[in-house]
Amino acid sequence: MKLTISDVSKSYGSNKALQHFSAELEPGIYALLGPNGSGKSTLINIITDNLRADGGEITFSEDGKEPEDVLKMGVRFREKIGFMPQYPGMYPNFSVERFMWYMAALKDVGAGMKRKEKKEYISGEISRILKAVELDDVPHRKIGALSGGMKQRLALAQAVLGNPSVLILDEPTAGLDPKQRISIRNFIAQIAFDKIIIIATHVVSDIEFIAKKVIMLRRGVIADNASPEELMHRIDGKVWLLPCAEGDVVGIQRERMVTNISRDEKTGKVILRIISDEKPGDDAVNTIPSLEDYYMHVFGEQSGDN
Question: What is the DSSP secondary-structure string of the chain?
């Protein structure tokens, strides 16, 4: 199975939202990272056929078949997609379970099965998925009465329903507490073996350990595209821990890229995490880079491009 995006571009007037984007995606998790306005949502909307590109082509192939243009595939391709938008619209008077049944009907889950067999299959799938996203204890609660985190998990549940080949998730862990975030992250990783999963997120830690590739976008252009391990390796020797007095913090922040501030309880000193090509102070020591460090190395000077 392969989703191939070739030279796709999109502009809004003079704003070039996406410029000659190309990537080959096979089963696994791909993370889209970048500041606001970098082109993530534009790309997602083009893949899901909610937006037409100005140029380029997207093809899809599976089971050893020849690649087909997804626009020509039309409904046949859309049936293979599970989509979780960043701001999902859901009927507040529907219960959790009723909403899942409604989405199953829209997706025609179980097509080709006999009526009784289909009903049993859908019921089993809904129960399994709601348990996986920790909503199995509130199947009859109305959506309007759910917390923001619960609505987020329900949006993920409907995206997974129907066993799509391509799963596109826009900010899937927004509004979740740390325990729920880990649970959802593990669930996504478990189902990624036979799916192409695209995750657009601002929470770098969510994809650091599960992404096959990280695609970094800046102003519609790919700034980098590699595994998390490769990206972190690129800043080996450039991440430092610098102990300093509290009164020196503001001055150092003006001069250096400081990504974290903590305090050493034993010495009372403030510890600054700094990204720098050269040693930022006599007492500075190198530390192991994180994906967030690399993100800041690439985008640290960019405040956003809305």
Answer: -EEEEEEEEEEETTEEEEEEEEEEE-SEEEEEE--TTSSHHHHHHHHTTSS--SEEEEEEE-TTPPPEEHHHHTHHHHTTEEEE-SS----TTSBHHHHHHHHHHHHTTTTTS-HHHHHHHHHHHHHHHHHHTT-TT-TTSBGGGS-HHHHHHHHHHHHHTT--SEEEEESTTTT--HHHHHHHHHHHHHTGGGSEEEEE-S-GGGTTTT-SEEEEEETTEEEEEE-HHHHHHTTTT-EEEEEE-GGGHHHHHHHSEEEEEEE-TTT--EEEEEE-SS--STT-EE----HHHHHHHHHTT-----
